């Protein structure tokens, strides 16, 4: 019964994307790591969360909360205190807020799909001010803790904050912000991989995340058009 539900809920392309994603994560773990199972667990949960987020399903936010805790631990092991503080101190609590917002705004009563919202122009200025403020504060905090690769770590804070804010606002562009964050993290973990090859599995994980976030944006735009079209039809009835 559950298998039928999964086949009916996810398209063949989405199932293929998830299978390829988790396969690449497992293969890279077996080849380059073999020991840090918390990294493997975090990566698999993260990849799974993205396919649910791409559907606008609140389950994705629940998985992001779990991923945030595990990823914070992984980041701590390489002294990426910026990543640890960002996920545990910002992304995780914002994911909880986003989860509440998604649950409160189902599309037509369907709790498996959130109602897509359009970010108002008036919000861009306060969002930008908050982003700059958060970035400046975290820069000095990360500098105090002697965070490895300080500048890209700070940039990760910036992109993460924009992403979680847009997620809370139910804007399709949250996926673009996360894609930008993925690129920053790919650079960060490549730097870590140069020192310790086992971290290549984390790098591959974020490459997988990048592809999933790009798909997430594409699917949210489809959702937005469909929801707007249905609303217009209902108003004309």
In short:
The chain is an all-alpha fold. The chain contains 9 helices and 2 strands. The protein has a two-stranded antiparallel sheet with strand order 1-2.
Key descriptive features of the protein:
about 240 residues, two-stranded antiparallel ribbon, 9 helices, 2 strands, about 5% strand
Order of helices and strands: HHHHHEEHHHH
The helix content, as a percent range, equals over 70%
Give the percentage of residues in beta strands: under 5%
Give the class from helix and strand content and strand pairing.
mainly alpha
Terminal CA distance reads 36 Å
Mean pLDDT: 89
Report on the biggest sheet.
Answer: 2 strands, antiparallel
- What gyration radius follows from the Cα positions, in whole Å? 18 Å
Please explain how this structure is put together.
It is built from 9 helices and 2 strands, in the order αααααββαααα. With 237 residues, the chain is an all-alpha fold. A two-stranded antiparallel ribbon has the order 1-2. Helix 3 (37-53) packs antiparallel against helix 4 and helix 7 (150-168) runs antiparallel to helix 8.
Spell out the blueprint of helices and strands.
Elements lengths: L1 H8 L2 H21 L4 H17 L5 H19 L3 H24 L1 E2 L2 E5 L6 H24 L5 H19 L5 H22 L4 H37 L1
Antiparallel strand pairs: 1-2
